[in-house]
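Form 7-S
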Amino acid sequence: MKDICFATNNAHKLEEVRIILGGRFNVLSLKQVDFAGELPETHETIEENSLEKAEYLFDKLGIPVFSEDSGLEVDALNGRPGVHTAHYAGDRNAIRNMDKVISELSNESDRSAQFRAVITYMDESGPRQFEGIIKGAIAPEKMGEDGFGYDPIFIPEGYDQTFAELSAATKNTMSHRKRSVEKLAQFLNSLN
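Output:
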């Protein structure tokens, strides 16, 4: 089984990716490869931040790596929070971030939104990027206990429950991360 480092220590993201890849690859976290530093995220787009993290980590480790950057893009907010999704209310506080989005949409009838993930895979042959999108809408209030991030306010297209109300198994059939990781998996399988 091939080792590949996922540029994260987020247990939720790591587990989600391991489930999606289904044991075909030995997905290592940053902690498992003894990387304790901060990954740079200095750009204003999801694509650029994903690429920056992958290039930086590959230069440090010299093994195949992939990084992911994702964001919630709300139509009525001109695509915000977007690249600033994790820190939208000023820090990494999911409750405050969700409250800010709900507040900003209080007078909006258009609640359409999407989650978008971009994965960058990097090895000695250079970078490759894979995008995944799930469309949906922002709920009027937080609903559900499961999931993480903005899951309690995001209702995926075709459902009337938020990601936080749906089971992890259901969410993993359609998430933006799943869609980008599946494209990565197809690419990795083509290398073998």
